[in-house]
Specification:
The structure is a homodimer of 891-residue chains. With 891 residues, the first copy, chain A, is α/β, with parallel strands linked by helices. Among the domains of chain A are: 98 residues, D-amino Acid Aminotransferase, Chain A, domain 1 (2-Layer Sandwich); 133 residues, Phosphohistidine domain (Glucose Oxidase, domain 1); 309 residues, TIM Barrel, CATH 3.20.20. In chain A, the strands form six sheets. Chain A has an eight-stranded mixed beta sheet with strand order 12-22-21-14-15-16-17-13. An eight-stranded parallel β-barrel of chain A has the order 24-25-26-27-28-29-30-31, surrounded by six helices. Chain A has a five-stranded antiparallel beta sheet with strand order 1-2-5-3-4. Chains A and B meet through helix 24, helix 26, helix 28, helix 29 and helix 31 of A and helix 24, helix 26, helix 28, helix 29 and helix 31 of B.
Amino acid sequence: MENNFVFMFDQSESGMKELLGGKGANLAEMTRIGLPVPYGFTITTAACNAYYDAEKVISPEVESQVLQSLQVLEEKTDKKLGNPTNPLLVSVRSGAVHSMPGMMDTVLNLGMNDETVKGMAELTNNARFAYDSYRRFIQMFGNVVLDIENYFFEQQLEEIREEKGYQSDTELTAEDWKEVIEAFKSIVLKNTKRSFPQDPKEQLFLTIQAVFDSWNNKRAILYRRLHQIPGHLGTAVNIQSMVFGNMGEDSGTGVAFTRNPSTGESKLYGEYLINAQGEDVVAGIRTPQPIATLKDEMPDVYQQLVNTCQLLEDHYKDMQDIEFTVERGKLFILQTRTGKRTAQAAIRIAVEMVKEKIMDQREALLRVDPDQLNQLLHHRIDPEYKREKLAAGLPASPGAATGQVVFDADEADKLSKEGKKVILVRPETTPDDIHGIVAAQATVTSRGGMTSHAAVVARGMGKACICGCDSLKIHLDSKQFAVGDTTVNQGEIITIDGSTGEIFLGEIPMIEPELSDEFQLLLRWADEERKIGVRANADNPTDAAKALEFGAGGIGLCRTEHMFMDASRIPTVQSMILSETTTERKESLDQLLPMQQQDFEQIFETMQGHPITIRLLDPPLHEFMPDKEELLVDVTKLQITSPDSNELQEKQTLLRKVRLLEESNPMLGLRGCRLGMIHPEIYEMQILAIFQAMSNVMKKGITVKPEIMIPLVSHVNELKEMRELVIRISQHVQTETGLAFDYLIGTMIETPRAALTADQIAEEADFFSFGTNDLTQTTFGFSRDDAEGKFLQHYVDSDVLKRNPFVSLDQDGVGKLVENGVKLGKATNPALKTGICGEHGGEKESIQFCFDLGLEYVSCSPFRVPSARLAAAQSTIRSERKKSRKEPQYS
Amino acid sequence: MENNFVFMFDQSESGMKELLGGKGANLAEMTRIGLPVPYGFTITTAACNAYYDAEKVISPEVESQVLQSLQVLEEKTDKKLGNPTNPLLVSVRSGAVHSMPGMMDTVLNLGMNDETVKGMAELTNNARFAYDSYRRFIQMFGNVVLDIENYFFEQQLEEIREEKGYQSDTELTAEDWKEVIEAFKSIVLKNTKRSFPQDPKEQLFLTIQAVFDSWNNKRAILYRRLHQIPGHLGTAVNIQSMVFGNMGEDSGTGVAFTRNPSTGESKLYGEYLINAQGEDVVAGIRTPQPIATLKDEMPDVYQQLVNTCQLLEDHYKDMQDIEFTVERGKLFILQTRTGKRTAQAAIRIAVEMVKEKIMDQREALLRVDPDQLNQLLHHRIDPEYKREKLAAGLPASPGAATGQVVFDADEADKLSKEGKKVILVRPETTPDDIHGIVAAQATVTSRGGMTSHAAVVARGMGKACICGCDSLKIHLDSKQFAVGDTTVNQGEIITIDGSTGEIFLGEIPMIEPELSDEFQLLLRWADEERKIGVRANADNPTDAAKALEFGAGGIGLCRTEHMFMDASRIPTVQSMILSETTTERKESLDQLLPMQQQDFEQIFETMQGHPITIRLLDPPLHEFMPDKEELLVDVTKLQITSPDSNELQEKQTLLRKVRLLEESNPMLGLRGCRLGMIHPEIYEMQILAIFQAMSNVMKKGITVKPEIMIPLVSHVNELKEMRELVIRISQHVQTETGLAFDYLIGTMIETPRAALTADQIAEEADFFSFGTNDLTQTTFGFSRDDAEGKFLQHYVDSDVLKRNPFVSLDQDGVGKLVENGVKLGKATNPALKTGICGEHGGEKESIQFCFDLGLEYVSCSPFRVPSARLAAAQSTIRSERKKSRKEPQYS
């Protein structure tokens, strides 16, 4: 055998996760450490890739290895697949390298057919169980493998139930199930034009193929895209002998987390259902019981579970998410994996595991995903606000959200794309609803528990979620839900709190988030480790204060145009722009000067000596002007209705001026330092405002460290001229006030040419700040405004681009320019300070990249500062580990 | 003496042109070879730069060296500056490294004052001459050094003339001139609040300073910008003892070219004035006599001049432009320089000098400026057209032009900026009119000869010019000119032919240019030398035929969108764009297919096997749509006037669709291959049209070599996907027709990212064509449409950018990307073909750059092909000479 495509659970070795997938590797690992795992084998991801390479054909080699392994399994269990008297039943589950909950498909009870069902009935002395299991198999196989909509089976079952006058499935007898089985087989025949396959080996290979196929279904591709998982990894398939949680009241199935995945509390957490199979818990159809009650119902099993959880956490040194089944009082562990958790839980677990000496601080820092932290830094419901609760469910994923109610994932997706905020309300969710959960601010379900599909997915995304809110009576047909007498229609606004499970009518005020003690501690550890600065982008004193609160080391980008945009200033700004002469323009600028100066004074006072990078006016002037189309419509109307009016004349004049400012590609037009070159009086006013503010604040005994940044330089001569302007005005103010200023002059590197000629530019610059938003636009030739709506999404969806380059820095292209810019810049000016102030400054992979290039700081929005501090620490730790060639595996 | 800032004419050595300037170096050279040059000395360009470095102060060191040299001059001439009985008079002239005719200022007769004029009168026994010379000196010094408008002097002179009832200056007596002198001195006193300086040394240093200052006057800066002369070179100053062409009828002054600068004919060519000073010829105030008549008037002098010309041409191995003066029958050579010439003359001279064995072919190729050739390739007046001549003057610079008459340089400049074509008509031109000559299509003067200011400047620019057309009676006040009974007002259209000197009323049809035999020969020599291909950008069979005629080796850029723009196709194109479904769109595309196919068939047949690079659709779709503003105005009007009309509804629908296509930065939006990615059916149609056309033309036995080019690629995956599309369709057509196609698939490199990741992209490409227009836009972040109107001109004017990067490739920035692209591309795909198809493909410096990078070809508009062939040959020759370390000096 040249390639080993199949491994028995006790045959594989550690470190084979790439081949066995996460689930398979864990099953093998658990088997090795002696846990009660039902025996089985894993078909490797290599077999999956071979399947795709062979244009979706399972090779004879793989087939024969599967059959050989099946034989081993049969020998070990002393049962035989398809044997009428002693049948082996197996589960078939996918298991990719990265855990992809709900994405891939599972088939249980495989091996059931018209003969083996009888044997099972006899063997277990439980005909009802046997026929129930058989119908479950037909339904699952029919849905997953044969692609028949579940709806047909559910409808059929409902009909029979109604016919018999039953309220729930538990009332169905063995005979009833036989009737259901026949009906289900008809559904299969009708939908596939073939009888339900009776040959268990045919069942097995069809299912393996279905698992392989599901690797490339739409949901899986969407999930991979959301989580940046490469498409070439493939999935493994796990074949495991069945154990049954549905063999009566001494059986059951459940899910346990070794710690609370929502809060992080170190206490066994989970749910179970008596007399049920595994899928019942996750699917959220029946609402399960909390794990604590198992202690009373099955004390031995509970204790065994507690011990196993401890063993697994000790072994994996991380919080585990465990699936278990109790078959007639005996505990089996079906699966363990690193448990998904909220940001809050991730932080608490990491911090507590350090206290428990399970790991050190550096390891703890690596265990928290910076991307996740943002969810802790969003607004929450104002606890002071008097409000009345409409309903309450399980607090499945924390966070508060407000939005219009929608009842359908497609609708949620559509409205969200139109810029609306929506809350998805469903009886339960399935993997088909993922795009709706992604699009919605939050999800609410009336059924299902804390480990239901909606809960798991929402927590993974850091989105608020409430589950099992059964007081909600949802009417999908009429698109409304009722709670008591209150009816809420699609489109009405509700507010939810995922941390308490509460639902409110209307919009409720939110308050700013605060950092928990554990979060603060973790960030202090991060600051101890990190070797790259973190600053914030802040344009006003409020943002500046927030930035300091969140631990920013300064302001990396203070955009002065937002100061121009203020409603009370716009008329002055407009008359400045419309000035016919420089003298006229200076008059308007004289009016703006004290306003700008006051802005700067407030920010300087707030920042108390931390450096502040101030970017001079950047956007094209027409952004401050009235809308051209509106003017054109007004003028056209007035020409008909009042052709002699003064109003017409005035609007015509204004329209003419607005047209003069119009540009075909404003992003590449008269903006940035080009404004300063053509209308130096505008920059003069801004520079004067900065230095006068500086002297006023210095007189109060406060240190001020401005770093004046010239935007959109593409040739060193632009910077040279603007630098002279800054120096001239600074000297003027210093002479006037008798103060000595300490400040820097630098530039944004945001055109390819600036990066390519950084050696020349660095000779005139004290610092470079890479403006990677604009640099991405010019390097790709993408206008972000146009690209995102018109083709970028298609590019990402169809894998033309791995990621949206405006979200994660394009290292191959834009990154090369940044690298080049740093290298050339430091070559001619070794004292050059370098940083990044594009949106990428808050994104973990981009931070790693910036750290590796030797940048001094990253700058991001204040709310991303904590996450950036953590990412900065991780970059440092990873790079150091890489250097000492001890790069660990990240799960 | 540490630095030698001053050199006597016989003291300097060859190769000191950088220090002595062109004029100074030539004076020294002529002195060395024994020509009759009035003695003198040159103050170096280093002294000029020292002057600017010292914030416009002449250093004591320079001053003392000047005085020492003056002493040497006094000794040699046996005269003394300021000596009342034996005064030395000198001329002071600027002389930069690059000849800048009319740009810098000259002062003659320096040394004249109230005392020396008397000495001169006695010495020459010609009081009239002496006083005339003195008044000339006051006038010139007053104007050039003291900055008094010439108008004051001219007006004063005119008053006195009228008072006395004289018709011309020659009637003024010595006494009259004395009166003029007193009046001129009053003008000086009134304008400068100081008396006219009587101290000749003060006169001298003030004049030297004025020459230095004139290096940075507006005209000089404009000229340097037009001719790409760096500003740091500085000017030298030549001090030369005066000789006098105005000492009577046995004296005179003139200008001679060793060959005809207009046609290139090898025959002495020039003009002279009897009893005049040099400035009279150039200024164009008196119309001089042709040089041939000198043979009769002063046979000895004429023969001496002929011999001198021969000597100079032999010495410099190039056509010379000589200034001479005859003082009382004795010939003096005042200046020689390489003569400016028309393109036609440049070619003929180069070709004939090879025949005369003065130089070899390679040298001849270097002697013709490729930039100049374009003037030979523009339209000329249709000789078949029956027309009546309005007037005729001297054919001062060849070429034909049509435009509105303007009488003022400012007006010409203004109208030209508004996109109008104008012809500047002036009595004469002065350096103050340069911007008008630049702006106008052609210049006509009623006074002045073939070497007048207008003629020299126009020839240098390759613009048509007619001089000395004295039948034109120009009335500047009423803005009209009259010829006999005909009056032509400002704004009326005339047509002129600079090759014949004819002026016509109205517009006259033009015909396509042809290449002269000499031109053809020169280009054949160029083709023998050049090692880089030249292709043409051509979108239709006419351009393709022109390209072949002008010697293009193929089509480097065939833009398919121009085929879409055809008026008869636009409705179909629009309905294609407006399609709501892919099916609808395909219907419109099916209609376009045969049209595109026919276009390609015609081009393929024309090109007869030469390669044709076809670029698939590139511009954003809204370029094909109706104007949004017009629609908006229509809709607004209809809403008031016919709110219920169908027309309103239709226009509203159209407006909505046009809005959907609208983009904020269309240059960076949905265009190029992004169109092909989002609407593959459009590219499918184009590709099908190409291959079906190919098979049809191949069936006629004609070879077809299409090179299909995918535009605006920024990521290799875009090219990969489009490449697959091309291959799929090509295979389909090959299978259908049974033909085997030979074709290439490549891409434009026109985004920085494409250049930065060229190694990846080259793996999917057979060729790269650098689209340096768009690459310049994205690298600088300049939208050409916006930049050129709003700030680029300012950048070039104020030296922020040396040249407009859309005209000459920016080697520091864009060039780095091209270099990188070629290097990376050839690294992964050594068979990669590379070329350039931006406008730079026809510009000589850019061609040199492309050749040095190892590009296989350049592509430019058909009319620039001849010039590109020459530039390509020059690149090869220069690079080879550089390699053999024998890089020559280019004058």
